[in-house]
Amino acid sequence: MNWEQIPLGPLQTNCYIVADDKKNCLIVDPGEEGKKLINRLEQRKLKPQAVLLTHAHFDHIGAVDDIRNKYNIPVYIHINEKNWLMDPSLNGSQFFMMGQIKAKQADQLITSEGEMTIGDFTFVVFETPGHSPGSVSFYFKNDGFVVAGDALFQGSIGRTDLPGGNHDVLINSIHKKLLVLPEETIVLSGHGDTTTIENEMDSNPFLNGF
Prior knowledge:
This is MBL fold metallo-hydrolase. This protein is α/β, with parallel strands linked by helices. The chain is built from five helices and 14 strands.
């Protein structure tokens, strides 16, 4: 299993391509620039199986329909944000003067934590709300990485001043769901560089003293 980070759009939101040795792949958070992302998938001769969304803020969903329509694959999102793709007031796009960003409803709703299998991919879904009410993280245990969306960043945490955000809930999510992972686990964040659980336990100023 391998992963590739592709920053997309004006906010340079990290999209992740998670691929296996059979050229199948999952697309996590296709935030913008659908043509650029499709060109990369074609260049690598990958076969997308699904779109996974860590949450439905506008900068993470801008190319959802481009990818879904091109490859005829399902989109997964947590049930707590089932209406956000279609609603700029919920996904935040109407507040940032970047145009109203909408996508069609998700094809599949994530209703609980636990192991999920899509094709040959098996991973664990953690509910990690706080940045948004339906934020989730995708943990690929055997490969030692977790896609954490905007919950946890290198040296920082997600903002909580958007609809449904809650600072205390986010801090609890990080401590109860992410920091309990093996310290060597690589954290693939929604923005910026990757990090590790160990690094954030040792040096993240937002998590010290909890």
